[in-house]
TrEMBL record:
Name by which UniProt lists this protein: Copper amine oxidase-like N-terminal domain-containing protein
UniProt signal peptide: 1-24
Residue ranges occupied by any Copper amine oxidase-like N-terminal domain in the UniProt entry: 32-134
Organism: Paenibacillus odorifer
UniProt keyword list: Signal
Domain of life, per lineage: Bacteria
Length: 301
């Protein structure tokens, strides 16, 4: 009897241990365009389904739902996707696709396969196993990519500033920001990366895979003047704190100072040693008005 009791006790301990381990597993987190999908996430046969409305966060995307046929239609640019609840056959334009799991209606919501829809719309899907998070980030649409690849630097840079921004890493800069005036710096002849200086904060954005990501940011010490021939010379003040990996310094930068307060744009070139050459200025009223202009003598590399 004692031996049976001991065995029962060991089994109970193992069971509790297994329960504790299972309960400790983090809940799957879904992030679509930097926003969390908090309700309606389903795991069916190892596949993740999310509410159809989650894809309303994509730009230039329309979603239609036919309650009679139980068919959903998602369209973006030249891509049109059709799914029917309960059917594992979906359509990408005129091509039939067999799904691993069909769309379903759960608690009054239409749930659709996450990866299939996201990738069909041209988005990037990545999984962070450490945080048990699925990240879905839309890429720039075909028109933006076409403009970005233009040999016209003005067209290319305006498109670059309109690319979707991935915000997987939250900003570490703290404090009040003065956004009535901002300065944008593009490496001479390029549009694949840029600094934005606002108040005493500065960030460097880099374009890869048709997505923009912040790779470096800093808090400037505006009580001092810059003395080194590095990033600090461009901005005029030394770095007090920085986060991320700073980009390789370019020989010179095209700069665009915008001020809603002063209703003006001042543009020109800034060398790596901080030498500035103003090319011109014009009126600026904000409201998403394009402020990137051609700088005399600059061509796309």
């Amino acid at each position: 009897m004692k031996r049976k009791g001991l065995l029962f006790f060991i089994v109970m301990l193992l069971s509790l241990s297994m329960i504790g381990t299972a309960s400790a597993a983090p809940k799957l987190r879904i992030m679509v365009n930097n926003s969390s999908v908090d309700v309606g996430v389903q795991i069916v046969s190892g596949k993740t389904l999310v509410p159809l409305k989650a894809f309303e966060r994509f730009k230039n995307t329309s979603i239609q739902w036919d309650a009679n046929t139980k068919q959903a239609t998602i369209a973006r640019d030249s891509m049109k996707i059709k799914l029917t609840v309960g059917s594992r056959t979906a359509w990408k334009n005129s091509d039939a696709v067999q799904l691993d799991v069909s769309a379903k209606i759960v608690d009054g919501r239409v749930a659709v396969p996450l990866r299939f829809i996201a990738e069909a719309l041209g988005a990037r899907v990545t999984v962070d196993a450490a945080s048990n998070t699925v990240w879905v980030q839309e890429r720039a649409n075909a028109k933006l990519v076409q403009n970005y690849n233009s040999n016209d630097l003005v067209v290319s840079r305006i498109a670059a500033l309109q690319f979707p921004v991935e915000e997987r890493e939250p900003s570490k800069l703290t404090g009040d920001n003065e956004a009535l005036s901002m300065t944008y710096y593009f490496p001479e002849g390029r549009s694949d990366g840029y600094f934005i200086l606002y108040g005493h904060f500065v960030k460097y954005y880099e374009i890869k895979d048709n997505i923009v990501k912040v790779v470096w940011e800093a808090d400037l010490d505006m009580s001092k003047e810059a003395t080194n021939k590095d990033f600090t010379a461009i901005f005029g003040y030394p770095v007090a704190k920085e986060y991320g990996k700073a980009p390789v310094l370019a020989p010179s930068y095209a700069s665009f100072y915008t001020s809603v307060w002063g209703s003006q744009i001042i543009y020109g070139m800034v060398d790596a040693d901080g030498t500035t050459k103003v090319s011109g200025q014009s009126l600026y009223w904000g409201n998403n008005e394009p402020f990137v202009v051609a700088i005399p003598g600059e061509t796309k590399l």
